[in-house]
Design goal:
The chain is an alpha/beta fold and 496 residues long. It is built from 24 helices and 15 strands. It is elongated, with a radius of gyration of 30 Å.
């Protein structure tokens, strides 16, 4: 596509004056959205789990030409949705070359462009914006000022150019004017101070802004999109009522509704395609990792107002694969196959993402995370082995059998001991594994079955001896510690 380089060439192209002056950004978003709906293509590729809830509401907001806000807890793809809006913008948009606010050549707003157009006429140079150029995002923080968002007088510009301070040519444009003819997104809106939010009133309703000290109102063409965490209204700030009233649509996001949706998101986002050994992640490993997040969101010891981000299973999956990769490299194994032990090794990717209530703080993040893993294993185990008779396996342990599966032990080292457990290998078929499969796959499935029995308290486990009979489970004595809230007063914290 040959793009015009001067205003004269532009007037002869398909970018007519009528098209560029009457079709505003919200009309452009609306037109391109309608075209995408007619084509049957996904509106927001890569956004999983919102097809029947959030996406239809966003479509309605765009069709209504609304400014809108996405309300949701952390890790609910709010920022990703905002950035995906650029796919609904035209691939190219002309503006006056060098203009800070991307002036429309047919209707220039700033004094500099008006003077340039009058001086050069059809020879005025034209540049082009891409969709990414037309998206401006600002993370709201308490130190943001009106000058940052709207603009201010620039005395340095005045001194260098020799203009009076009252001249429009001495304006410093903030982020909002610089997003003219595009999308302006504000993340975590409640973190903006109330007086800063007031500065957005005019652009929300009348469509213009006024920079301090100048009797000039800039009629900007911009779509405003916001995000916020509902709990931030009271925790760190709030959206002032007049601004909230000016937002056209309030759309609530949510976490994945099913484990399958969560797995789809984690599979899409986690870094799994690595330059190294071939990777084979068993389905039950995916389900356990995702189930950890679901269990955490229901656990009373975890702050529901803070939420449990979808980043938890994503980070956990990456750590699980890394631990399995480390074992494979150390033991010269051909295939990387994660085990249950790798999930316990991924605790650092779980504990930092849990905001604990008082009861959880008493137990400790590490203890709570281990219990969540155990619950997730039990729930996933039931999907595979609930109707499987494992009495022969538990009897083997009751008769004195025990086996330790080291986290770094090779599959060849472990599989011999596993074959000694009566009935174990025959039961792995319920997990889709056969005894003829690769040792790494067999060991992973066998450990899953044994961990499931342990999670249901049918067998025991100790750090020193590994899996043992349930009646031989030795409970460690409770450890006395000094309570932080009352120094010098003892409390009791049980070991896991």
């Amino acid at each position: 596509m040959n793009l015009s380089q001067t205003f004269g060439e532009l007037k002869k192209s398909s970018f007519s004056e009528e098209r560029l002056t009457t079709r505003r950004v919200k009309d452009e978003l609306r037109d391109n959205l309608i075209a995408r709906l007619r084509s049957g293509k996904p509106v927001f590729p890569g956004i999983v789990g919102y097809e029947d809830t959030v996406v239809p509401q966003i479509i309605n907001a765009i069709l209504s030409r609304h400014n809108f806000i996405l309300l949701g807890l952390r890790g609910q793809a709010k920022s990703r949705i905002l950035r995906a809006l650029t796919t609904l913008l035209d691939p190219h948009l002309p503006y006056v070359t060098g203009c800070e606010i991307h002036d429309n050549p047919y209707v220039p707003l700033c004094q500099r462009c008006r003077d340039l157009m009058q001086e050069k006429g059809d020879a005025t140079p034209i540049a082009w914006l891409t969709p990414d150029d037309r998206y401006v995002e600002k993370l709201a923080t308490p130190d943001v000022t009106v000058a940052d968002l709207i603009g201010d007088i620039d005395p340095i510009k005045a001194a260098r150019s020799g203009h009076e301070l009252g001249s429009e040519l001495t304006m410093h444009y903030g982020l909002l004017p610089r997003s003219n003819r595009g999308i302006f997104a504000v993340n975590e809106l409640p973190d903006l101070a109330g007086k800063i939010q007031v500065a957005l009133f005019n652009i929300m309703q009348e469509g213009d802004v006024q920079i301090k000290g100048y009797p000039v109102r800039l009629l900007l063409d911009v779509a405003l999109i916001f995000t916020a965490n509902p709990e931030d209204y009271t925790a760190r700030g709030k959206i002032v009522t007049p601004l909230k009233d000016r937002i056209g649509s309030e759309i609530r996001t949510h976490y994945p509704a099913t484990v399958e949706e969560g797995i789809a998101i984690t599979t899409q986002e986690a870094w799994t395609q690595r330059n190294g050994h071939p990777l084979q992640v068993p389905k039950y490993i995916n389900e356990i990792i995702e189930q950890i997040a679901f269990c955490a969101r229901e656990d009373k010891r975890i702050d529901k107002r803070s939420g449990v981000s979808q980043r938890l299973p994503i980070s956990c999956m990456e750590n699980v694969i890394s631990n399995a990769e480390r074992r494979a490299v150390r033991n010269n194994e051909e295939t990387v196959v994660p085990r249950i032990a790798d999930i316990y090794a991924a605790l650092p990717s779980i504990t930092g993402k849990l905001e604990l209530e008082y009861e959880g703080e008493l137990r400790g993040a590490d203890s709570v995370a281990r219990e969540l893993i155990r619950i997730a294993i039990a729930k996933t185990y039931d999907q595979y082995f609930k109707d499987v008779n494992t009495q022969q396996i538990t009897q083997w342990f009751d008769l004195g059998g025990e086996i330790k599966i080291g986290e770094t032990a090779s599959s060849e080292e472990v599989i011999g001991g596993l074959k000694n457990i009566q009935g174990l290998m025959e039961k792995l078929g319920s997990a889709g594994v056969k005894s003829k499969d690769k040792p790494e796959v067999v060991v992973s499935a066998a450990e899953f079955l044994l961990e499931g029995l342990y999670a249901h308290k049918r067998i025991g486990r100790s750090e020193e001896r590994g899996f043992i009979a349930q009646d031989k489970q030795i409970r460690r004595p409770e450890k006395t510690f000094e309570r932080e809230d009352f120094p010098g007063r003892p409390g009791r914290r049980p070991y896991n």
